[in-house]
Amino acid sequence: MAPAIRDVREHDLDAVLALNNAGGTSILATDPSRLRHLYDIADYFRVAEQDRRLLGFLIAMRETAVYDSPNFRWFQSHYESFVYIDRIVIAPESRGHGLGRVFYCDVQSFAEVRVPLLTCEVFLEPRNDQTVLFHGTMGFQEVGQQQMGESGPKVSLLARELPSFPFVRERYLDHGGLPDVDWLRGRQHAEVRA
């Protein structure tokens, strides 16, 4: 059976936290309160599940989120409208099977009916050519670099233009909004937040 991609549920957070903190040097460790904050502010927070086991997750948010990440703030200061991929983690035994691409295609389908850009960052220290190459093959281009804090790692700030957005904006967003269908609705949890 293939993994199912679905919205995260509150009871998934312990498993998400464990997966995140076992992610290695390419992902920042977090704690329960910070993960809870991400859960509360994320416009997109989906998990991959197979046989009741989480295989990975991806968290993303719109430019209006209240988030103190220096990388997110960099994008806020440079772009008016975007979806920011904060983190993606795939369980070690599930890596190399295309699950990262599935998540990126899914978040792109979420983003391209809402914003013109999909953004993220990759660590340049320690160097991870596989991650840089993955993002390049997914259409991302470097738009900047920065050091995370005084002693944090250097990151490459990446953006991907979403070519479908102008059509969606002209056809729907400028004329009453998106059709009211399930697959276009945003994360319900995110919509009811303040």
TrEMBL record:
SUPFAM superfamilies: Acyl-CoA N-acyltransferases (Nat). InterPro entries: Acyl_CoA_acyltransferase, GNAT_dom, UCP028520. It comes from the Bacteria. Residues 3-163 form the N-acetyltransferase domain. This is GNAT family N-acetyltransferase.
